Amino acid sequence: MSTSGQGTDLRVCLPVPAHAIMAHLLLTDPLGYAEEEGLRLSFDIVDGPDIAVAGAGEGRYDVAVANAVFAFRMRERGAAVRAFYSTCRGVYRSFAVPVDSPISSLADLRGRRIGTDFPDLLDLAFPTLRDEGLRPEEDVTFLPRSIPIPGVAPSPEELERIASGKLDAIWVLACAYEMLLVEGAQLRRLPTRTLDRLTPSELLYAGEHMLAGNSEALARFGRAVAKASLFCDTDPEAAVRLVWEHFPEARPAAGDEAQALKRDVAGLRGRTERGLPQHGRVPAWGSITAEEIQQWEDFLLRNGGIGERHPLEEYFEPGLVDAFNDFDADAVRAQARAAGQG
């Protein structure tokens, strides 16, 4: 991070390509929210959440986004990084199976092949399966990189892998699940004993150096993210089209616009509907509570995800929430409606 008379530079690390499911972050700049907050943003793309969060702790990035499990796994590894903003509340990872599968519970996954995207997220899959009485190292076989990276359109090969039964189940992000449904995959989620009740599910992370010396910049960034999140929820189609306009790598191929719009809107809604303030223990944008973090730690400790307890304040920074929510929500909604009519 650097600061000049023209504003503050922030490097934001994404663990997935700059596609529409990341509109709540990507559109902070095109919508003018970053500029309003005196921020100049750049986005770095890396291959997976572990690299992103570790990079924030090492100072290579100012902010990273990843599943909530990394707040605990990174602390276990001694990484100097904490969460400061919740971007998604409701469960954002789940196991899913074909609709006609005989599998009805996670216990039925014993002996099965499970497709997934990033191997990093086995850090959450294994505790989830142990919570259901399985021994994941012995009872199931995970096949990383066998389903789409979140936000990216599934390939014919990936769709065939699911439809043909080469995979008995998938461990999938909610937005990717919704995009698969649009592409014709016939899937249903499996309920879990504990994971479905844990919140938040996805967080923004910053290194201790940022939290100690530049928390005001993080507060301003969180406010910009809250505004962009509200814009996306108000008119997700307008948000998708803006991502296409400003991020060329997200644009669909010629002739695929109509299907891509359905797919990207479904993926974005899969995120925005889970990120609304009313789904948190404290109904405010970005909020994280000690009670929520305690329940996460209990779950991971009970199921081998981490080895010891830590003071809860070592996982998260709760003190910026008021700043995140200090904006005119009606003005943002009006901006989104106007964009959708343009």
Note the main attributes of this structure.
2 domains, 42% helix, 15 helices, alpha/beta, D-Maltodextrin-Binding Protein, domain 2, 5-stranded mixed sheet, 342 residues, NMT1/THI5, 6-stranded mixed sheet
What does this structure look like?
- 42% of the residues lie in helices and 17% in strands.
- It is an alpha/beta fold.
- It folds into two domains: 2-90 and 199-341, D-Maltodextrin-Binding Protein, domain 2 (3-Layer(aba) Sandwich), CATH 3.40.190.10; 93-197, Periplasmic binding protein-like II (D-Maltodextrin-Binding Protein, domain 2).
- The strands form two sheets. Strands 1, 2, 3, 4, 5 and 11 form a six-stranded mixed sheet that branches.
- A hairpin with a 2-residue loop joins strand 1 and strand 2.
- Helix 8 runs antiparallel to helix 12, helix 10 (215-234) crosses helix 11 (236-246) and helix 10 (215-234) packs across helix 12.
In short:
Residues 25-239 form the SsuA/THI5-like domain. By secondary structure, this protein is an alpha/beta fold.
What is the C-alpha radius of gyration, as a whole number of Å? 19 Å
C-alpha geometry: globular
Give the number of helices.
15
Elements, N to C (H/E): EEHHEHEHEEEHHEHEHEEHHHHHHH
Q: What helical percentage do the residues reach?
A: 40-55%
Q: Span between N and C termini?
A: 35 Å
| CATH T-level fold name of the largest domain | D-Maltodextrin-Binding Protein, domain 2
Output the CATH homologous superfamily of the largest domain.
Answer: Periplasmic binding protein-like II
Oligomer: single chain
Pfam family, one: NMT1
InterPro entries: NMT1/THI5, SsuA/THI5
Domain SsuA/THI5-like: 25-239
Protein name: ABC transporter substrate-binding protein
